[in-house]
Amino acid sequence: MKQHKYFFVGAIGAIIAAVTLAGCAGAPQSSGDSNPSGAGTLTVVSIPNYKGSLPSAVTAFEKENPAIKVNLQFVDVNSMYTTIRTQLTAGTAPDVFTVFPGNGTPTAMEVLVPNGYLADLSGLALDKRIPQGMDSVTKVDGKRYVLPLSLGAIGGIYNDGALTALGVTAPKTWSEVLQLCGTAKAAGKVAYSYGAQTAWNNQLISFALTASLVHGKDKNFDKNQTAGKASFVNSAWKIALEKLLQMNTAGCFQSTPLGTSYENATALVAKGDALGMVSVSSTFAAITTAAPKDATFSFHALPATDNPEETWIPAGASGAFGINAKAKNLAAAKKFLDFLATDATMADIAKAQGTLPAITSSLYETPVSVKEILTFVAANKTHPYNDQLWPSPKVAQTLMEQVQQLIGGQTSVTAALTAMDTVYAEGSGS
């Protein structure tokens, strides 16, 4: 596998600032396969984050393409990691499926491309619509392999009504985070619901904290780590995991985070039993779907220090899809991805998700709930999701496992980070 590139979200600041500008979509390209019309069934598999938006996009696509029937399924992230790889090897994978941008997970672009699992999207209309700032996590050797649906971010997603009921606001300093936890606990509420039972959730708080503690303070950390001049255990990653444990000890989470799934964690926020949760911005859809119609929610950065000027957020391409290189209905798959990349569909998905579109759209108006993300992009205070830059899926998997053990009291911060350093040093052996 080629060495990964570095993707700094600050490079797309101008693109996001122009989020209301229009883009032009070309006609779908001919697939060149034995069924150029795409008539028949198209199989699509997505992670659950897009349950609130993808079904309506599929309905609109089928209306525009009546000869194509889409079989849409949603698969948990952990199942996606294992089943898709098995299916790709066996030749039974779906035509279109979630592919994580960049590197760092078993179904990430840079893991799948060297094995010939992904179709080249360079000839499609979507190729020229994707912001240049996302090239390094959507291209390999100059060829496009994934289409991101959203510009995602990680931070606190808060129930506005629950905050108002307690007379509090989203914290802007680390001390205020702990104060919020105490206030919520005293009122019989949870400050931050935490679905630690669902493995991928165990990256999110550390990603949010290290954006400020590590990358906001050392712009060259990623390069130095790749060069062997920096490590997890000898960096502010140690402070980040210590703060995660501090949140647990302070009662910031529900009593049994290890017994709580992602779905149950979002339900707590939706009902107002939890003031918020630290998650990816696409989680807005899961929360709002389960919430009363009049409930509102908002995104705010999770501060890691007592100086608000030092706060950064993780942000980058998310909700991405790729095409199986051996898709049974390649023409329909290409038509579907080009349809997702149009102005109208990008706007509809962003509205349903309550987040920002990966491709600018004249039909989209940024909701108040996520406007804070744009302030960090404009200030160039963003860092990619860490795992998009790591050399192997094993690093993210180790982080998830180690955080679960930390929460369970089965390991130490030093041991956890040492384990991460070990798999990082192994490089691309996935």
Automatic annotation (TrEMBL):
The keyword Signal applies. The keyword Protein biosynthesis does not apply. InterPro entries: Bact_solute-bd_prot1, SBP. Transmembrane segments: none annotated. Residues 1-22 form the signal peptide. Keywords: Signal. Gene3D superfamilies: Periplasmic binding protein-like II. PANTHER family: ARABINOSE-BINDING PROTEIN-RELATED. This is Sugar ABC transporter substrate-binding protein.
